[in-house]
Amino acid sequence: MPEPVLSLRGLDAFYGDFQALYGVDMEVAEGEVLAIIGANGAGKTTLMRSVSGLLRNAGPQVVYRGREIGALRADQVAALGIALVPEGRQLFPSLSVEENLIIGGRVGRKGPWSLEAVFRLFPILEERRSVPSTSLSGGQQQMVAIGRALMANPDLILFDEISLGLAPVVINQIYDQLPGIVGEGMSAVIVEQDISKALAVSGRVCCLQEGRVSLEGRSDEVSREAISHAYFGS
Ligand code: ATP
């Protein structure tokens, strides 16, 4: 068995005294797309923040390519090749589309993703490269957030609810690009509220319930009943 790109080994996460994750075990294999589903407050965003260094924890519980990264800062994690497309996009509002993208390139590594490559993926961003990111539609802003993450040339990309608040046609447009994004060698973790979507785009799925893994399996094998049980606990 090749070494997983990412392993979570009994990951606990806290906000002060409040525990949001309890002993989460999870692995992401090379080239795999893992979907994380779960109800509001289940801990999905906390998991993404723990991996990307935004929420720092004990250390040995997050292992990336054999290296413990749980105690690293977000910029150190990015430099190793993990990029986050955060919930709510979090673009720099006073900067142009192009400037937002260029900032993504500053924290990462050298590789195939450049401004030109992002513009090939999302041509509308080239047309709008000079305008402030806030003047874009929600879908276009999401494209900037994805492009910004790609500019860091990650080999593990984390998508936190990229469909949130977007029209179905725009969501499809973004997901249609996924194979081109998660190309050779890149692995992905996707947090997605839409279960059908999550199953369609992933190889494996993991459900969180109140901070614990309640289901884990191949996306083409898990039953709707099992998901419903894992999701709601009923
Ligand atoms: P959603 O789909 O609503 O984004 P989620 O599965 O991503 O939910 P998290 O945002 O990870 O869930 O939240 C997990 C738990 O941690 C929730 O009970 C939430 O209230 C709590 N929590 C999240 N952020 C904080 C914070 N900054 N301070 C305290 N508690 C928090």
TrEMBL record:
Gene3D superfamilies per UniProt: P-loop containing nucleotide triphosphate hydrolases
GO molecular function: ATP binding; ATP hydrolysis activity; branched-chain amino acid transmembrane transporter activity
All residue ranges annotated as the ABC transporter domain in the record: 6-233
Entry keywords, A to Z: Amino-acid transport, ATP-binding, Nucleotide-binding, Transport
Signal sequence, start to end: none
InterPro entries, per database record: AAA+_ATPase, ABC_transporter-like_ATP-bd, ABC_transporter-like_CS, BCAA_Transport_ATP-bd_LivF, P-loop_NTPase
Record PROSITE patterns: ABC_TRANSPORTER_1, ABC_TRANSPORTER_2
One Pfam family of this chain: ABC_tran
Domain of life: Bacteria
BP GO annotations: L-amino acid transport
Keyword Transport found: yes
Claim: ATP-binding is one of the keywords in the record: yes
PANTHER family assigned to the protein according to its UniProt record, in alphabetical order: HIGH-AFFINITY BRANCHED-CHAIN AMINO ACID TRANSPORT ATP-BINDING PROTEIN, HIGH-AFFINITY BRANCHED-CHAIN AMINO ACID TRANSPORT ATP-BINDING PROTEIN LIVF
Family of this protein: Belongs to the ABC transporter superfamily.
Name listed for the protein in its UniProt record: ABC transporter ATP-binding protein
